[in-house]
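ok trying this again, last paste got cut off
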Amino acid sequence: MTLEEQINHCLVKSEMTKTELAKKLGTTQSAFSQRLSRGKFTKEELEKIAACLDCSYHSYFEYDDGTVY
């Protein structure tokens, strides 16, 4: 599943439109949609998106021994 698909699923679950999310993020719907289609967000931006959607975002590598980076 692409990042765009993941965010779109979260939007549906949160009953929020791209326009509403973009406004919460301080950008336009057009600018947000362009970035979404490219899937180019920093970890911090993804965490902010998650906070707006009332969920959490986790981005890390985890080994079988429990080591996380």
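PB: full thing came through this time. The radius of gyration is 13 Å.
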